[in-house]
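Long-time lurker, first post. I've been practising inverse folding by hand and with some scripts of my own, and I keep getting stuck on stretches where the structure tokens seem ambiguous. Below is the full token string for one chain I'm working on. Before anyone asks, I'm not after the true native sequence, just a reasonable design that respects the backbone. If someone could post their per-position residues I'd love to compare against what I wrote down in my notebook.
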């Protein structure tokens, strides 16, 4: 913001410029707007009466200040929405304790219980198989045969397959060249709150972030429709 001053008013112009540098707090839009109005009044009072500053400049600069304030309000609202969304995720995750969910997984934590899941195929496969790799790098292949596009259910019985309890990497091998995701079903035993959002502890799978859930719902009660 500039002004045309008489020779005797150059000191006043210097003081206004210094006030701009020292008095504006860019992190506080309200204070920024107040400082701008104060400086604008000072500039009007010290301008050359014979050559007044174009009022359009004041209007444009004030509009800029208003935009800055609006942006700060939008930023504050966005932060509030993020906090609300995080709280809603935590409440939703807490409500899943005891329920069965499906999650995208590339790791399994096998014990003695059978683990079930699905493979989502976009293309037909003449030879489809699940490959489990234990912590020692030993692989176990579960042949699923020829499959049409769509959902392909599978079941992993550790006892029948001779798989020792432990952690296994799970992946799909298909002759179509497709690398489909594996969705595994399990019951949520607990929910842990972390800096990255809720983390679910799921039987047969282990710790899974909330955003990896692909399906959940109340299990049907025996004897009821």
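-- Answer (accepted) --
I ran through it position by position. Result:
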């Amino acid at each position: 913001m500039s002004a045309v001053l008489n020779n005797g008013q150059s000191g006043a112009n210097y003081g206004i410029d210094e006030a701009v540098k020292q008095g504006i707090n860019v992190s506080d839009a309200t204070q920024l707007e107040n400082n701008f109005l104060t400086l604008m009044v000072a500039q009007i009072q010290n301008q050359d009466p014979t050559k007044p500053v174009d009022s359009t400049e004041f209007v444009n600069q004030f509009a800029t200040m208003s935009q800055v304030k609006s942006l700060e309000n939008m930023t504050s609202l966005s932060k509030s929405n993020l906090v609300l969304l995080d709280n809603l995720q935590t409440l939703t995750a807490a409500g899943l304790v005891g329920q069965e969910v499906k999650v995208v997984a590339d790791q399994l934590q096998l014990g003695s219980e059978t683990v079930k899941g699905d493979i989502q195929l976009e293309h037909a496969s003449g030879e489809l198989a699940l490959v489990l790799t234990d912590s020692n790098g030993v692989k176990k292949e579960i042949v699923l045969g020829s499959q049409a596009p769509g959902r392909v259910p599978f079941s992993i019985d550790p006892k029948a397959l001779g798989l020792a309890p432990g952690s296994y990497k799970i992946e799909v091998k298909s002759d179509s060249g497709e690398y489909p995701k594996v969705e595994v079903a399990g019951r949520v035993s607990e929910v842990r709150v972390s800096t990255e959002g809720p983390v679910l502890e799921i039987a047969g799978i282990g710790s899974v972030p909330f955003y990896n859930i692909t399906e959940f719902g109340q299990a049907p009660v025996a004897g009821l429709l």
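A couple of notes from the structure itself: Residues 55-94 form the longest helix (40 residues). The two ends are 75 Å apart (CA to CA). Happy to go over any region you disagree with.
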